[in-house]
Amino acid sequence: MAPPAADPRSPDSIVDYKPEVKRVEDDDPDVAGFIALVCSIVGLMIRNRTSLWIGTVFAVESFLNQRASDGGLLGSPAATILFSTLSLLMNYLPEIAAAYSGVKI
């Protein structure tokens, strides 16, 4: 048998739990911003409005969840919103122009 001093249940061998400190730099990347850019680019390339609307929703979510220190690899969330809304406008613009000029598409 081991001597009683080596007993791991003894009160003097208790180590207090200290949670690790998480830095802002260690956070996960902006996944919503990435999905917004991918959906907007795909929707712009294949002219899919559903993908464009999904990209716009994710861009707004990325903007609302940004931190003050966000600089990110993908640019600012405001630029993502601008890109997704302009791609929506580019997709709907032929129909808007046709409605005002009287030409049927």
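That was protein one. Protein two is written in the same sequence-then-structure order:
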Amino acid sequence: MSFCSFFGGEVFQNHFEPGVYACAKCGYELFSSRSKYAHSSPWPAFTETIHADSVAKRPEHNRPGALKVSCGKCGNGLGHEFLNDGPKPGQSRFIFSSSLKFVPKGKETSTSQGH
């Protein structure tokens, strides 16, 4: 189930190279490719963040079981966390669209690491 509009062209849906997914606005590290998994939605799905403060969350009052997620550093809107909808029982699913940029393993910079 997804609550976002999809206009096509999602570049990270089937992208599984090793690396880091960072905020497209400020470059702060958000997700490792190790936490990414294949999902039926057109957006990339992750099970956990890199840092405890990678993202900030707030309830979506009109969407039970969903949290609005933003970058923990700059506040850029990223997408949603769907509670108890991950690949394993009890895991959540984070989904995002064009708010992410991918940094291949070995190409990390101080910007992508949030420094």
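The chain has one domain: 20-103. Keep this in mind for the problem set.
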